[in-house]
Structures are given as C-alpha cells and as structure tokens.
C-alpha cells in the first residue's frame, strides 16, 4: 500500500502502525538470530514511508532503526484515566511490573497516581516459559495492578497474578497496551485470578472478548486520530504523550 501510494505520486506517505510487528526481535539474543525489527524498518523505508506513527514500542530504541521521523505514542494517559474511573480503591493500590524491563513504565504511572510500585523478577527457561518469579515490593492488603506493554501467551502475567495473591493482594488487575493473546492465552486468563484484563484496541479484540468475559478494551482511536491530524497540519504531537484528546 505504501509503495502503491508512492508510485501514484503521493507527496508524502505516513504509515500508522498501532502495534509494530516483530518489536520483540530488536537485538540478537543468541548466535545467528535475526534482528527482525530492523528488517521491518528497512522494508517500510524502502517501500516509501516518510513518517511512522506507532504506539508503545517494546523497545524505544527501535526508533533508531529508521532514518525517517517516528512518533512513538504512549497508552499511559488512557491507562491512568481507566484506573481512576474504574478501580474504586486506586488510591490504595500498588502498580506492579511483571519484569524488570517495565520498571520505568510502572514508576511513571505510580508517581502520577501517588501510590507505591513493585516489580517481579522472572527467570525464563526458554521463550514464553517462565521458570520462577521473585516479588520485590509490598502488595499485602492492597489492590495490585499489573502494567505491561504486551501479553502473548499470558504465562508471565498469570504466574505474576498468582504470586501477587499469595503475597496478600486483595485483587489483581492487568493493564496491557497490546493484547496478542496467542495459543493458550484465553484459557489461561479464564482460569486466572484476575478481576479484569484491560487492553487497548491496537489489536482487534472482538473475538477474544466473546470467549473471555474478563477482557475489557480501552479505545485509543482518538489518540491516533489526533496524531494524524497534528502530523498532517504540521503541529507538535508532544501533547499526546501526557494527555488524552477529548
């Protein structure tokens, strides 16, 4: 589509990719492994894209794979809004990261809500399979809110939920930007102890919601629409990093 627009004499092509593909393959984690995120970046550039708009990249350094402007929008403002409007005990909750890599995201949300945060250190035996978890922080007699950028097979967040309940949490919510939900994910969520698993609609969730009543969706279409409008008119998109457009 990008190339079709380009050869049809489009003066500028902006590509909106809510969930960037292969974002987890941003480095070589073993010998002869591909850096697929860089390959996707090259393909988009060669096809003729002049600007990329995406949301919550798994690794922010992916922006450096491009030689064209990349706007990495954040779901954080909508997550904060959902917490305040839907969790009555949010003033006495703990924001939890299911891994050390999400600590920065979690501390930012916890600071804006003026609540405590915790993180879970996990060790993997292999991809999508967690060996053991260690909770760093206190969730006793509090609502625990797990926050992450994506969930695939949901093994990590389901194990994390069990860990939080065993540590004394009164309830567990999961808030995710990208709900991939592949393989056994839906059955794991149905059998887990979540009050709700909340995802944005960067990936369509209609089918998953039919099979799992715990899944709720935050609509981020207004953020993308406002980013497109501002980009088209040459305005700054920095406002969207901290605000939800009305």
UniProtKB/TrEMBL annotation:
<keyword id="KW-0808">Transferase</keyword>
<dbReference type="InterPro" id="IPR029099">
    <property type="entry name" value="Pribosyltran_N"/>
</dbReference>
<dbReference type="GO" id="GO:0016301">
    <property type="term" value="F:kinase activity"/>
</dbReference>
<dbReference type="Pfam" id="PF14572">
    <property type="entry name" value="Pribosyl_synth"/>
</dbReference>
<keyword id="KW-0418">Kinase</keyword>
<comment type="pathway">
    <text>Metabolic intermediate biosynthesis; 5-phospho-alpha-D-ribose 1-diphosphate biosynthesis; 5-phospho-alpha-D-ribose 1-diphosphate from D-ribose 5-phosphate (route I): step 1/1.</text>
</comment>
<dbReference type="GO" id="GO:0009156">
    <property type="term" value="P:ribonucleoside monophosphate biosynthetic process"/>
</dbReference>
<keyword id="KW-0545">Nucleotide biosynthesis</keyword>
<dbReference type="InterPro" id="IPR000842">
    <property type="entry name" value="PRib_PP_synth_CS"/>
</dbReference>
<dbReference type="InterPro" id="IPR005946">
    <property type="entry name" value="Rib-P_diPkinase"/>
</dbReference>
<keyword id="KW-0067">ATP-binding</keyword>
<comment type="similarity">
    <text>Belongs to the ribose-phosphate pyrophosphokinase family.</text>
</comment>
<dbReference type="GO" id="GO:0002189">
    <property type="term" value="C:ribose phosphate diphosphokinase complex"/>
</dbReference>
<keyword id="KW-0460">Magnesium</keyword>
<dbReference type="GO" id="GO:0000287">
    <property type="term" value="F:magnesium ion binding"/>
</dbReference>
<feature type="domain" description="Ribose-phosphate pyrophosphokinase N-terminal">
    <location>
        <begin position="1"/>
        <end position="48"/>
    </location>
</feature>
<dbReference type="InterPro" id="IPR000836">
    <property type="entry name" value="PRTase_dom"/>
</dbReference>
<comment type="function">
    <text>Catalyzes the synthesis of phosphoribosylpyrophosphate (PRPP) that is essential for nucleotide synthesis.</text>
</comment>
<keyword id="KW-0479">Metal-binding</keyword>
<dbReference type="GO" id="GO:0005524">
    <property type="term" value="F:ATP binding"/>
</dbReference>
<dbReference type="GO" id="GO:0005737">
    <property type="term" value="C:cytoplasm"/>
</dbReference>
<dbReference type="GO" id="GO:0004749">
    <property type="term" value="F:ribose phosphate diphosphokinase activity"/>
</dbReference>
<dbReference type="GO" id="GO:0006164">
    <property type="term" value="P:purine nucleotide biosynthetic process"/>
</dbReference>
<dbReference type="InterPro" id="IPR029057">
    <property type="entry name" value="PRTase-like"/>
</dbReference>
<keyword id="KW-0547">Nucleotide-binding</keyword>
<comment type="subunit">
    <text>Homodimer. The active form is probably a hexamer composed of 3 homodimers.</text>
</comment>
<dbReference type="GO" id="GO:0006015">
    <property type="term" value="P:5-phosphoribose 1-diphosphate biosynthetic process"/>
</dbReference>
<protein>
    <recommendedName>
        <fullName>Ribose-phosphate pyrophosphokinase 1</fullName>
        <ecNumber>2.7.6.1</ecNumber>
    </recommendedName>
</protein>
<dbReference type="Pfam" id="PF13793">
    <property type="entry name" value="Pribosyltran_N"/>
</dbReference>
């Amino acid at each position: 589509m990008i190339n079709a627009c380009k050869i049809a004499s489009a003066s500028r092509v902006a590509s909106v990719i809510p969930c960037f593909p292969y974002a987890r393959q941003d480095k070589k984690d073993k010998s002869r492994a591909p850096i697929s995120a860089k390959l996707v970046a090259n393909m988009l550039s060669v096809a003729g894209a002049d600007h990329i708009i995406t949301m919550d990249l798994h690794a922010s350094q992916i922006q450096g794979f491009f030689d064209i402007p990349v706007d990495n929008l954040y779901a954080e403002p909508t997550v904060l809004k959902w917490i305040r409007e839907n969790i009555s005990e949010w003033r006495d909750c703990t924001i939890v990261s299911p891994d050390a890599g999400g600590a920065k995201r979690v501390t930012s949300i916890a600071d804006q809500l003026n609540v405590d945060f915790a993180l879970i250190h996990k060790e993997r035996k292999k991809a999508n399979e967690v060996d053991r978890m260690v909770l760093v922080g206190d969730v006793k007699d509090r609502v625990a809110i797990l926050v992450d950028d994506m969930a695939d097979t949901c093994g990590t967040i389901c194990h994390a939920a069990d860990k939080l309940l065993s540590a004394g949490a009164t309830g567990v919510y999961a808030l995710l930007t990208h709900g991939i939900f592949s393989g056994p994910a839906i059955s794991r969520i149905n059998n887990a102890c979540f009050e709700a698993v909340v995802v944005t609609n960067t990936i369509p969730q209609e089918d998953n919601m039919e099979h799992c009543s715990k899944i709720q969706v935050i609509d981020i279409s207004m953020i993308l629409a406002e980013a497109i409008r501002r980009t088209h008119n040459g305005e700054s998109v920095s406002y969207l990093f901290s605000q939800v457009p009305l």
